[in-house]
Input
Amino acid sequence: MPDGIGLDGRDVPSRGEDDHSELLSELDSHDLAVATNPMDAGNGPEFEFDSQVDPARTFPQSVASGGPTSTGVILWTRIAPDVFTDEESLAVQVAHDEGMDDIVYNGLITDTVGIRAHDHTVKVDLDEYLEPDREYHYRFIYRDVASRIGRCRTLPHPDDSPESIRFAVLACQNFLNGYFPAYHHVASEDVDFLIHVGDFVYESDAGHFKGLGSSDYPNREKSLPSGNDRVWNLEDYRYLYRTYRSDQFLQEALESHTLIAGWDDHEMINDLYWDKETDAPAGDHPRGDDPEFMTTLIADAMHAWWEFMPARVEYDPNGEKLQDRFQLWRSFKVGDLMTLILTDERLFRDPPREAIPTVDNVGPHREPPDEPCSASSSASGSLTQLPNQRQRGRCGLTRY
Output
């Protein structure tokens, strides 16, 4: 039997400190949703649609963009399962103008097997198709129905010298805690990009992580497919993303701005950390001390996150360590103005320090003094702008 291949045909990565070998092996068995390149197309019948039809039934989670580069973005949508058919291609259009008159790209996505396999989600990679530091508009068309029109933006060229960059920085949105009006305001703000630093979803349908004194709100109930009150499998995670992405205010923001997404713990489980003794994830879950179950569960969480987030995260199946294969650690160069760095504080995190409460760990008194680049976040979202003076540096966003 060749080196690196197990009895069940799955790969067996090298074992050693921080190799995360069992999680790597589990991920190898998943069909992960990497972004696809569309097929260039003309103006065929796939681009015809009835402008009077409400797009919500065909595109229930609307559209989003993310993973910006200087020459492209990733475009995202989801087709309603009861509308989807293997016989129809999905069309995508990109234009300079919101009216979609000045079309710069027409493409077709023909991999219907892949769409069905990934909960009917689609990620289209337009890297190398667009121009630097420019705003575009886009839409998807499927079976004579057009999605709502989204707006996206590319990064400046690495050699450019932009005067400023403006972000909306967001985190910690619990569907059970209420509605998302901050996103309605973010949608209309003059920002260049959205940054979400984690807790995009919360993994309970029974209110385990609701705020103190939070009420029960109409139409914010959840019911996980597994029947448990905490996530138990891939379908539970997919359900959470579908539910959160049904919020109209969240849809508005993701339609309006290009997303740069990281994660924290609740995309997986509360207080997730890496147990080096078992070489497995652990944390606050009814089966958090079961290494085999937790390894499968975290792989399912990563699988669903990949499907529903328009994030440019690479996966190299030939890497020997998790750091080599799964590259959530990544940077975004904004010309020579700044470099934005997103880190992963969970898959490599040590166990919690019980002697120091988490609130104290992340208190304002532990912030570095007067850094030239800073970002803030809150449950309702906040807007951050770098100073107009020509400050250069590296800005890292970390969520605890």
